[in-house]
Task: inverse folding
């Protein structure tokens, strides 16, 4: 929900990341390598995943596989919003999206 709320409140930030940064990474190479430009979001998700595994809520798997399982659907939905393709507001998709991500990551 937090990511979706950020996307609704500041769509230009997510739009910038999806359209400008990811498409033109070579322009941003100095001081912005790898996760540095998205460090806050990446760190928060990685900590969430590590804590979930530690508590036994999430299954132990490769961190990057789990990371893209979270970020892929979120980024995709925000991208579709930017293309004006969604029939509902972003927040109306939050519960179903969270359920899908949970089912993909949960411990068996």
Result:
């Amino acid at each position: 929900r937090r990511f979706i709320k950020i996307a609704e409140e500041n769509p230009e930030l997510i739009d910038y990341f999806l359209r400008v940064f990811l498409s033109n990474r070579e322009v941003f190479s100095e001081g912005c390598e790898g996760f540095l430009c998205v460090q806050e979001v990446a760190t928060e998700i990685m900590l969430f995943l590590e804590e979930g595994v530690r508590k036994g809520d999430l299954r132990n798997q490769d961190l990057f596989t789990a990371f893209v399982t979270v970020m892929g659907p979120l980024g995709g939905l925000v991208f579709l919003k930017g293309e004006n393709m969604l029939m509902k507001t972003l927040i109306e998709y939050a519960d179903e999206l969270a359920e899908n991500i949970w089912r993909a990551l949960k411990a068996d």
